[in-house]
Amino acid sequence: MKHDPGQFQKLPSPLPAGERVVWQGRPTFKGLALRAFHIREVGIYFGLLLMWRLWSNWSNGASLSEATTSALWLIAPAISGIAILAVLAWLFRRSSCYTITNRHVLLHFGVALPITMTIPLTKIASAALRTYRDGSGDIPLKLADHDRASYLLLWPHIRPWRLRLSEPMLRSVPDAALVAARLAEVLSGQPGPVAVSLSRLAQDRAPVSAVSHSPTTAAA
């Protein structure tokens, strides 16, 4: 997998001796805009609201031109709302960087206050993969020590709706299958009693695979 070195961010500190970067990348803008900030749903909401306003005014005796003029006033707030969400998605993408090394997974994020979450590979109990039509995908990480990660602090780099036991997530990474394969390779090579399996996350949001007792590298 080839990458343009210019797109990568510098790591917060030099890697220790013997540690090397296996993969590094950012979330896709499209994935953040559609699946984190839900621009599509907001657009549908305003579209339905516009049609309801048009029908309501016309059914209450307004002429078609008057009803249309009244309904069109919703276009400005609709465009403004969608534009704000798009800008936020762009800012979150620009400030985010995921790094996989042969010892850690690093999530660097934060628009105003940059934060780096460092997850040792030995602390990852299991991982999963959910891909989308454009080849991007989400890779949630289930932690073995059950330390609760802050849902609000990590959002949107966290698996949706897992509030009790939050799971950090590499959200909308490009070429997700290849990234998952890289992660599976480094996870399967970890020593110790915790062996990790990487499974595919079903489209119906099936649970992540359980910890296995033998190293497993699943085809991503």
Would you kindly provide a written description of the structure presented here, covering whatever features stand out?
With 220 residues, the chain is of the alpha+beta class. Helix content is 34%, strand content 20%. The protein has six helices and eight strands; from the N terminus they run E-H-H-H-H-E-E-E-E-E-H-E-H-E. The strands form two sheets. A four-stranded antiparallel beta sheet has the order 1-2-3-4. Strand 3 and strand 4 (115-120) form a beta hairpin. Helix 1 (29-36) packs across helix 4 (75-94). The longest helix has 21 residues, at 39-59. It is elongated. The protein starts with 20 loop residues before the first strand and ends in a 20-residue tail after the last strand. Residues 1-8, 192-197 and 202-220 have low confidence and may be disordered.
